[in-house]
Specification:
Blueprint (H helix, E strand, L loop, with lengths): L7 H10 E11 L8 E12 L6 E4 L3 E7 L2 E2 L7 E4 L5 E11 L6 E6 L6 E6 L21 E8 L3 E4 L5 E5 L2 E5 L13 E4 L2 E7 L2 E7 L4 H26 L7 E7 L5 E2 L4 E5 L10 H16 L8 E2 L5 H19 L5 H7 L1 H9 L14 H4 L6 H17 L1 H15 L3 E2 L1 H12 L4 H7 L7 E7 L2 E7 L8 E11 L2 E12 L3 E4 L7 E4 L8 E3 L5 H7 L6 H16 L5 H14 L3 H17 L3 H18 L6 H9 L5 H11 L3 H13 L5 H10 L5 H11 L3 H13 L8 H8 L5 H14 L8 H10 L8 H11 L4 H21 L1
Parallel strand pairs: 1-10, 16-17, 17-19, 20-21, 22-28
Antiparallel strand pairs: 1-2, 2-7, 3-6, 4-5, 4-7, 8-9, 9-14, 10-13, 11-14, 12-13, 15-16, 18-19, 22-23, 23-26, 24-25, 24-27
């Protein structure tokens, strides 16, 4: 049974009427060794502030029985059970049954192909708890949850609260977990299966790591770093938020087929794709360190204090994203986190914020279906960048003091935008009303351009609707010193109007707007140094300065103000001198994308050769070697180049697979090599790597078979869809790809049927990259107008990206 999407009006009405005292939930998993049914008995104790009134409880599972204060209820309608004639104090008991879903909506069962072991997870965000059990599925109706789980005797069961009582009952065991603190339904979890477990103490807590048995050696390899990062994060956030994590146990569970990461209180669930089968590169560790700290920050932003409604999703996500970078730089070895953020996530935010799907960081969300479309680059990286700007604006000490006050006042409750901003404003002694309106409630990106005339320099600022926001930023002036640039001046300025005078020295070789990356804005060099800008970027003295220059060049590319060749020139020259291992792989990815996807066909091969040469040169630097060889695997021009790569890869199976993908794209036979590699690859998902090679070929039968597996059967794990779809849409295969572009459009009306994460993934990564024209893009945009919000947002974003690419290709 599907359920209607809860509206904000309905949620506000229900919250004004009810206080939920507790949930007692019994969950039966004992049939899942052979079957797929999960049985739940939910007992909800709650008070009604208007006795005699009526409301409803959410339950989109099959209801076997339901009683309110001993009275049998009518059958559910549209995923809702009507509750009438409420008493002042009420006990609702609902027994429901649900099937483990293929898409992970609510509860999902995965069977490890390596050993046949079964693992189960629940995923209740944003409002999927109702697909499994009866609950008031909205973020501000928080209550303690006490789970009792019956599961096969050989399994471990994990939930939010630690230290369960375990009873042996023959072939099954009963796990009784103590009540949690008050939590929203979407922050609760059950993970179960024959998990491999590691435990350590850190920051005064009992820390756990779990993975499926077949990945135990990978977890062993990464455990030291994972425990270290978790300990550092717990200590940092306890200090900055004025509140230690309030539970003794903190578990992290890497589970098969999970679609992302979820910040369940005390028991974070990860897709086990994050346990890299090949030894992670520095960039992969940098990204994962920030993901780990992001989910940890959610213990405070989202769990301890929860947004009242989804229009304040940024209170969860933007703050967790910001806090992860803040902690990484301040408390871990990943001190280039903000530069890596700039090289990756912030670029995505700049792109989206200048396109048709931009929206305010805080926006109206009428129902939960609309909320599902806001988990995007505006809410996450733009929100994080804006919060960094706020901390710069009020000062770090005042910012931290404001957060301490916020958590002290609102712990275990729900809040709105005003609560947080008032706390920071009080601590910082600044009126933030104008800042809030400009940065959180206004969409789009400001443009900051350096202007030079007879009166000197000025920063010209333009907002998306006219007047710019208030910015605190710096502009640097650099002059040549041998082969390098040295900063001769740094002017810090607060922009509050359309034109701000700057006391900069004349005659510099490069002027860098937003030096130190203090604000969120699209920036442009002055006209006199524009042409030299792309070559001079590599001469800048710091990774952050080079990152700002790369961002400017990329922003000019996506806006049609620079060519793919200029972007490749900027990136390859920066790569030749870069000292931050954290940004090598992101820059290589950008260089490959510029050459492969943004360049005219007549220039593509030559630009790919330029990137390949940069990769080959970087492969001689130990810290960059793996990232460089990965880049070479995407740009090798001849079979001889692939053979060199295979020789360099040696026993690195991941690199060997990447080499075969490129070999297939170049038209060489790969079947025998791929089968031999598959036979010796220990990865449980090695068949997906084999599928990537098949996807890259220009063989019609192989394309058809891959499309069947990837799209029709949806057999590829959600985390790997991108890695199969990307080689499927290979350059030079236009005639072969056109029918699949049409097939993509046919899928759009049904793309949302599998839930939020699959809808996002398939809409985004199946969008054609070749074999289409502007007419196709227009048809996709027309279809988006009829799609549900999550599909519409991702489809319009992809269409906008392709429209810009086609313009750049000429």
């Amino acid at each position: 049974m599907s359920g209607r999407s809860l509206t904000q009006t309905e949620a506000e009405t229900r919250a004004s009427m009810l206080t939920v005292e507790r949930y007692d939930v019994s969950v039966g998993l004992s049939d899942l060794m052979t079957g797929s049914r999960v049985r739940c008995e939910s007992a909800i104790t709650f008070t009604c502030h208007r006795p005699g009134a009526e409301t409803f409880v959410d339950c989109a599972a099959t209801v076997e029985s339901a009683t309110l204060n001993g009275v049998v209820l009518r059958p559910a309608d549209g995923g809702r059970l009507a509750l009438t004639d409420l008493a002042e104090r009420n006990v609702l008991t609902v027994i429901s049954v649900t099937e483990c879903s293929a898409d992970g909506r609510g509860v999902h069962k995965a069977v490890d192909p390596a050993d046949g072991e079964t693992y189960v997870y629940t995923d209740f965000a944003p409002d999927y708890a109702r697909y499994v059990l009866a609950c008031f599925d909205q973020p501000d109706l928080k209550a303690p949850w006490a789970f009792t789980v019956t599961a096969p005797a050989g399994w471990r069961v994990l939930s939010n609260s630690g230290d369960p009582q375990i009873e042996d009952l023959g072939s099954v065991r009963r796990w009784s977990f103590p009540p949690t603190p008050p939590l929203a339904a979407y922050n609760t979890v059950i993970n179960a299966g024959p998990y491999y477990e590691l435990r350590r103490h850190g920051a005064g807590h009992d820390l756990g790591l779990f993975a499926r048995q077949s990945l135990s050696s990978i977890l062993d390899r990464d455990a030291d770093e994972l425990f270290t990062l978790t300990t550092q994060g717990l200590e940092f956030f306890a200090a900055k938020f004025g509140m230690p994590f309030p539970q003794h146990k903190y578990d992290q569970v890497f589970t098969p087929e999970f679609p992302g990461a979820m910040e369940n209180f005390g028991c974070v669930t990860w897709m086990d794709w994050f346990l890299r089968r090949s030894t992670p590169t520095r960039a992969e560790w940098d990204i994962f360190s920030r993901y780990l700290l992001h989910e940890l920050a959610h213990m405070w932003f989202g769990n301890i204090v929860t947004m009242r409604w989804w229009d304040d999703l940024w209170l969860n996500e933007a703050f967790a994203e910001f806090a992860s970078n803040w902690a990484a730089v301040s408390a871990t070895s990943y001190t280039d986190a903000w530069t890596a953020h700039l090289a990756g996530e912030k670029l995505k935010a700049y792109f989206m914020d200048q396109g048709p799907t931009t929206h305010p960081i805080r926006q109206q969300v009428r129902d939960v279906a609309e909320a599902a479309a806001t988990f995007d680059a505006i809410t996450y990286p733009k929100g994080a960048s804006v919060l960094q700007q706020l901390m710069t604006y009020v000062g770090e000490a005042a910012f931290s003091a404001g957060l301490t006050s916020y958590f002290a006042t609102h712990a275990w409750g729900s809040t709105t935008l005003k609560d947080l901003i008032d706390a920071v404003a009080d601590a910082g002694g600044r009126d933030l009303d104008q800042w809030r309106a400009g940065w959180l409630e206004t969409a789009g990106t400001d443009r900051l351009t350096l202007d030079h005339d007879e009166d000197g320099f000025a920063l010209v600022a333009q907002g998306p609707g006219g007047l710019p926001r208030r910015h605190v930023l710096a502009v640097g002036a650099y002059e040549r010193s041998g082969d390098r640039l040295e900063r001769m001046a740094l002017v810090e300025v607060e922009v509050a109007g359309e034109r701000t005078r700057l006391d900069l020295p004349a005659g510099a070789d490069l002027y860098l707007v937003n030096d130190e990356d203090l604000t969120f804005a699209s920036t442009r060099p002055d006209a006199t140094t524009r042409d030299a800008f792309f070559g001079n970027a590599a001469r800048l003295p710091t990774a952050t300065a080079r990152g700002v220059a790369v961002t400017t060049a990329w922003d000019m590319l996506i806006n049609g103000e620079a060519s793919a060749a200029e972007a490749v020139q900027c990136l390859t020259r920066v790569l030749a001198v870069e000292t931050s291992a954290s940004v090598i792989e992101p820059y290589l990815n950008l260089a490959v994308e510029a050459a492969d996807l943004w360049s005219p066909e007549s220039e593509r091969d030559e630009l790919l050769r330029e990137v390949a040469a940069a990769c080959r040169s970087l492969s001689g630097v130990g810290a960059y070697r793996k990232a460089a060889l990965r880049g070479f695997a995407r740009t090798a021009a001849e079979p001889e180049d692939v053979a060199w790569l295979q020789s360099e890869a040696g026993e690195d199976i991941d690199l060997q697979w990447r080499a075969l993908v490129r070999k297939a794209q170049l038209g060489s036979p790969t079947a025998a090599e791929a089968q031999a590699l598959l036979d010796r690859d220990p990865d449980p998902e090695a068949w997906v790597s084999r599928l990537q090679v098949r996807a890259a070929t220009s063989d019609a039968a192989e394309k058809k078979a891959v499309w069947q597996t990837l799209v029709t059967d949806r057999a590829v794990p959600i985390a790997s869809v991108h890695s199969v779809a990307t080689p499927f849409w290979s350059a030079g295969q236009n005639d072969l790809l056109r029918p699949y572009a049409e097939a993509y459009l046919d899928l759009v009306p049904k793309m949302h049927h599998s839930g939020t994460m699959p809808a996002t993934t398939y809409t985004k990564w199946l969008f054609p990259l070749f074999g289409i024209d502007l007419a196709f893009v227009g048809r996709a945009e027309d279809l988006a107008a009829q799609a549900v919000p999550v599909v519409r947002t991702n489809l319009l974003d992809r269409a906008d990206r392709m429209r810009r690419m086609l313009r750049s290709r000429g």
